[in-house]
Write a structure and sequence with these properties.
GO molecular function: DNA-binding transcription factor activity, RNA polymerase II-specific; RNA polymerase II cis-regulatory region sequence-specific DNA binding
Structural class: mainly alpha
Keywords: DNA-binding, Homeobox, Nucleus
Shape: elongated
Distance between the termini: 143 Å
Organism: Nematostella vectensis
InterPro entries: HD (IPR001356), Homeodomain-like_sf (IPR009057), KN_HD (IPR008422), SIX1_SD (IPR031701)
Pfam families: Homeobox_KN (PF05920), SIX1_SD (PF16878)
Length: 275
């Protein structure tokens, strides 16, 4: 009925329904008016009084009002079931409602606001049903001039690609884009930058670590090829052969380095010492 108006108050709507109902089309108009007025309590009461018949269950206007009511009451499971189980025309607003419900569930789970990137990932994870989005999500293409302006700012700020609130507002004015569009563009751009940097890092050859040269102070001195093994020992190792005489111990090193047997060298030195 075309006589319905937003200026009608709740009492007038009740009277119209009492005089002209029950009628499924009238019920759809009344529910739509209550929804526009955001009278969710009255809307819920009105929907609960409708006949429980198939035509009232499948009426699109009523189901649209039911969907918004379920969202308002945070009954997201009922909302998803309602949107999947009924067909809607011109349902772009219901796709946004579908996304908003998933945002709210994720935000409540994480207990913090969602970033544009987080919302983007949620939209990718939860595809709207064909009953409200038969052709799937349509990729929105920004105007070339807007993209050029955003890309120019990004190229000048690659080290810190995070525009502050004032810069975003200025970019919004220059590009005529919404705040959400600007935030989403930068979130996607930063993700592309990180992916490209990771790919470049994987292409770089890995440097093999070369062993550090040992200090000459730590490198042991190699003995002469013909040196006796005892020539490298300490004085205490030579003491039994020289009766513990330190002087002879030092002299024996000289003989050892010339290939003389230790016992022979010790005897020579003892004889020299006694004489």
């Amino acid at each position: 009925m075309s006589f319905m108006s937003d200026k009608l108050d709740i009492q007038q709507l009740r009277e119209i329904w009492r005089q002209n109902g029950p009628d499924v089309k009238l019920a759809g108009e009344i529910s739509n008016l209550l929804l526009n007025k955001k009278c969710f309590f009255e809307l819920e009461m009105f929907l609960s009084t409708l006949p429980n018949t198939e035509k009232y269950k499948t009426e699109e206007a009523l189901n649209r009002s039911r969907a918004y009511l379920e969202f308002q009451r945070k009954r997201y499971g009922n909302l998803y079931q309602l949107l999947k189980g009924n067909t809607f025309t011109d349902a772009e607003d219901l796709v946004k409602l579908w996304d908003a419900a998933h945002y709210e569930e994720e935000r409540a789970k994480k207990r913090k606001p969602l970033t544009p990137l987080a919302k983007f990932r949620i939209r990718q994870r939860f595809t709207p049903p064909k009953t409200i989005c038969p052709k799937g999500r349509q990729k929105s293409t920004l105007p070339k001039e807007a993209t050029r302006i955003l890309q120019s700012w990004l190229n000048d700020n690659l080290e810190k690609p995070y525009p502050d609130a004032e810069t975003k507002e200025r970019l919004q004015q220059l590009t005529q884009l919404s705040k959400t569009q600007v935030n989403t563009w930068f979130a996607n751009a930063r993700r592309r930058l990180n992916r490209n940097r990771q790919q470049e890092d994987t292409k770089k050859p890995t440097r093999e670590s070369k062993p550090k040269p040992r200090s000459s102070l730590c490198t042991p001195t190699s003995p002469p090829p013909n040196a006796c093994p005892w020539a490298l020992g300490g004085i205490h190792e030579l003491a039994p052969m020289t009766h513990g005489i330190p002087f002879l111990c030092q002299e024996m090193r000289h003989y050892y380095t010339h290939g003389i047997e230790p016992h022979t060298a010790a005897q020579i030195l003892l004889n020299l010492h006694q004489n």
